[in-house]
Specification:
The structure holds two protein chains of two kinds. By secondary structure, chain A is an all-beta fold. Chain A contains no helices and eleven strands. In chain A, strands 2, 4, 5, 6, 9, 10 and 11 form a seven-stranded mixed sheet that branches. A four-stranded antiparallel sheet of chain A has the order 1-3-8-7, with no helix packed on it. In chain A, strand 4 and strand 5 form a beta hairpin. Chain A is globular, with a radius of gyration of 13 Å. Chain A starts with a strand and ends with a strand. In chain B, the strands form three sheets. In chain B, strands 2, 5, 6, 10, 11 and 12 form a six-stranded mixed sheet that branches. Chain B has a four-stranded antiparallel sheet with strand order 3-9-8-7, with no helix packed on it. Classes of the chains: A mainly beta, B mainly beta. At the A-B interface, strand 4, strand 5, strand 9 and strand 10 of A face strand 5, strand 6 and strand 11 of B.
Chain lengths: 114, 116
């Protein structure tokens, strides 16, 4: 158990819908990262937050957005869903700005868009 | 931009034997971290081992060790005394040690099977 929690574990929804994925980092970790794992694209970085502020953006679609709240949990919002958005979405956390380098991953949310 | 390449999509090893998984990377940076993550069928991403680029000594964690060749930009993972529980997908990953973006850049992964 990494100490990072994600809910829900599975999500099935229809095209055009909007969903919210939730992540709670390890106790004391200020940085949260979101990654997408799909068969086509592999593991890709989406976005990073540090202590409530957006720190870096990767290959995140405009239909996707995220935020980190004062209690440090983070939410990833996916809207106007398409079949190609079906993937495993991971949240990871690291202490401070990532000192030490390692990131600890949650169990992931498997999103299926039908 | 940094890239990570894992050219072997699959490997197989006999239980109790040793196997080496290969990884190469490309970067213009001198200070960075390299990682191996394990993803078993449960899909959980588990950190196996970490290497700091400034350290010449290769990292070891129990049965897992790396061969880090900075000049060649090579970072292989050796698993000794392979166990059935080692069967999983293994990802090599790169992280810059400088700058604001501390994202992980992953290779495509290698599927390791362990034969009893």
């Amino acid at each position: 158990d990494s100490g990072v929690t994600q809910t829900p574990k599975h999500l099935i929804t229809a095209t055009g819908q909007r969903v919210t994925l939730r992540c709670s980092p390890r106790s004391g970790d200020l940085s949260v990262y979101w990654y997408q794992q799909s068969l086509d694209q592999g593991l890709q970085f989406l976005i990073q937050y540090y202590n409530g502020e957006e720190r870096a953006k990767g290959n995140i679609l405009e239909r996707f957005s995220a935020q980190q709240f004062p209690d440090l949990h983070s939410e990833l919002n996916l809207s106007s869903l398409e079949l190609g958005d079906s993937a495993l979405y991971f949240c990871a956390s690291s202490p401070r700005g990532g000192v030490g380098g390692e990131q600890y991953f949650g169990p992931g949310t498997r999103l299926t868009v039908t | 931009a940094q890239t990570v390449t894992q050219s072997q999509p699959e490997m197989s090893v006999q239980e109790a034997e040793t196997v080496t998984l290969s990884c190469t990377y490309d970067t213009s940076e001198s200070d960075y971290y390299l990682f191996w993550y394990k993803q078993p069928p449960s899909r959980q991403m588990i950190l196996v081992i970490r290497q700091e680029a400034y350290k010449q000594q290769n990292a070891t964690e129990n049965r897992f060790s790396v061969n880090f060749q900075k000049a060649a930009k090579s970072f292989s993972l050796k698993i000794s005394d392979s166990q059935l529980g080692d069967a999983a997908m293994y990802f090599c990953a790169y992280r810059s040690a400088t700058g604001a973006n501390s994202k992980l850049t992953f290779g495509k992964g290698i599927t390791l099977s362990v034969r009893p």
